[in-house]
């Protein structure tokens, strides 16, 4: 209805998953990359949790598109299937001839088919959406399927997508065998205000918008607070805000339209007394054009917290863009190599080093040019390249806990914007990098660091890094 008004080719804030609108900022892109790695390298059982409307289904759909062509995907959208129905659904997707086979025979047929595909160089991954709603007996069947092996290789990869209730369900003693088979756990945390600004701009421009940013800072602040960072709520509020602005002939979404959208959405009890004219405009416009504005409502929930932890208040937005932790759930072990050690004693800080950003950027470029592609680093943050003061402050903070000469900066892009990545490293393997990550102090862990390979960073920065190894 407002597409021509804003020069859009399609609605920018549909709540149904549309993979072209996948936002790779915050922890989304990093989680996708880690999921692809886990599936391709046969990591067995993987779990992804997030609040209602956090974007789990979108992530699942994008994962299906991004996996290599040698991987066959089985998508189970109905979590209420019985044990036998799960087997039948997988077998049906793999086009197996069943002829009314019983469960025991069905498992053998499935294993034979998986071995045949493995011999042909193919893998099979089962993606289970809404896994928190699975009955215990079906989860037990998932555990048994995770045991299917050929030699030293897993024949079936399984990825569970679910709400935080999945962690509660897996925490009971009866589920410990399944819980211990989960090699990686990822969390889709709510977007923060700085992420939401980028998210709104990204969705608008993906839909064809080419003008200046439409959402004012005050509107973004209101949408951020009301949505609690959940992408589905953001989409609903942004769509209604655009409609309210269109109804009054405006091109910018201000706090007035945002308040009207908030009141109409009723995610929480009504608190706003302003914005009534805009609500009336939305209603009259809808009646005049025969458009219903009924949009599914989402019950109030607090932001998602990490598995097996108590809920904490939402963390205020830092001055640099955070990343999210992408790490296995295996217990941390003491470091075994000198390279994985993180020194807690205060060392030289950025304040005592002249032009620290330029110095560490040069060091990062040289490091990425000579290091092995399989080595690991800990990506601490992505920082806006135009805010060098904030980056310098972060380096000063980090240098109180880790050696400054082990902090490296590299240029990159995220959602069309230039950033600097700050990494700590290098580490010879994933285990030593994970040990070092778990030993980071709380002020660095609060930025949600993640593990990256040198090869992955090189692909990301592309021509910006001269690979000295190829000289």
From TrEMBL:
Lineage: Bacteria, Pseudomonadati, Pseudomonadota, Betaproteobacteria, Neisseriales
Transmembrane segments: none
UniProt xrefs under PANTHER family: GENERAL SECRETION PATHWAY PROTEIN A-RELATED, PHOSPHORIBULOKINASE _ URIDINE KINASE FAMILY
Domain ORC1/DEAH AAA+ ATPase: from-to ranges: 42-170
The protein, known as: AAA family ATPase
Residues covered by region (Disordered): 302-344
Organism the protein comes from: Parachitinimonas caeni
Gene3D superfamilies: P-loop containing nucleotide triphosphate hydrolases, Sporulation related repeat
InterPro entries per the UniProt record, alphabetical: AAA_22, ExeA_AAA_ATPase_DNA-bind, P-loop_NTPase, SPOR-like_sf
Bias-annotated ranges (Low complexity): 317-344
């Amino acid at each position: 209805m407002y597409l021509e008004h804003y020069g859009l080719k399609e609605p920018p804030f549909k709540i149904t998953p549309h993979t072209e609108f996948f936002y790779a900022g915050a922890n989304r892109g990093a989680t996708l990359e880690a999921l692809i790695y886990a599936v391709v390298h046969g990591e067995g059982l993987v779990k992804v949790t997030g609040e209602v409307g956090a974007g789990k289904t979108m992530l699942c759909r994008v994962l299906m598109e991004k996996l290599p062509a040698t991987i066959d995907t089985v998508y189970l959208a109905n979590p209420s299937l019985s044990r036998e129905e799960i087997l039948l659904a997988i077998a049906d997707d793999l086009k197996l001839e069943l002829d009314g086979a019983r469960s025991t025979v069905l498992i053998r047929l499935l294993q034979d088919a998986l071995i045949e595909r493995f011999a042909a160089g193919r893998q099979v991954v089962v993606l289970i959406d809404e896994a928190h709603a699975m009955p215990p007996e079906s989860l037990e069947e998932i555990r048994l399927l995770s045991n299917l092996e050929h030699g030293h290789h897993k024949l079936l990869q399984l990825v569970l997508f679910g709400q935080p209730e999945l962690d509660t369900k897996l925490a009971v003693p009866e589920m410990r065998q399944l819980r211990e088979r989960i090699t990686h756990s990822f969390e889709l945390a709510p977007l923060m205000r700085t992420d939401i600004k980028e998210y709104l701009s990204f969705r608008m421009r993906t839909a064809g918008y080419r003008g200046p940013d439409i959402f004012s800072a005050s509107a973004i602040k209101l949408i951020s607070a009301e949505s609690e960072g959940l992408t589905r709520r953001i989409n609903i509020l942004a769509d209604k805000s655009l409609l309210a602005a269109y109804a009054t002939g405006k091109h910018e979404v201000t706090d007035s339209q945002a308040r009207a959208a908030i009141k109409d959405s009723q995610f929480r009890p009504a608190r706003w007394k302003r914005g009534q004219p805009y609500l009336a405009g939305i209603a009259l416009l809808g009646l005049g054009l025969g458009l219903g504005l009924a949009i599914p409502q989402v019950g109030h929930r607090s932001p998602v917290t990490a598995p097996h932890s108590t809920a904490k208040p939402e963390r205020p937005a830092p001055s640099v863009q955070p990343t999210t932790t992408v790490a296995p759930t295996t217990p941390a072990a003491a470091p075994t190599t000198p390279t994985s050690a993180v020194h807690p004693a205060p060392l030289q800080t950025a304040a005592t080093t002249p032009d620290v950003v330029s110095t560490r950027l040069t060091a990062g470029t040289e490091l990425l040019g000579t290091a092995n592609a399989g080595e690991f680093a800990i990506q601490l943050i992505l920082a806006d390249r135009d805010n060098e003061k904030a980056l310098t402050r972060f380096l000063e903070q980090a240098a109180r806990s880790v050696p400054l000469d082990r902090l490296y900066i590299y240029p990159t892009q995220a959602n069309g914007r230039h950033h600097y990545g700050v990494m700590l490293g290098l580490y010879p393997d994933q285990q030593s990098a994970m040990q070092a990550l778990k030993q980071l102090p709380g002020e660095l862990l609060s930025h949600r660091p993640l593990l990256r390979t040198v090869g992955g960073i090189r692909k990301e920065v592309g021509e910006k890094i001269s690979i000295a190894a190829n000289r």
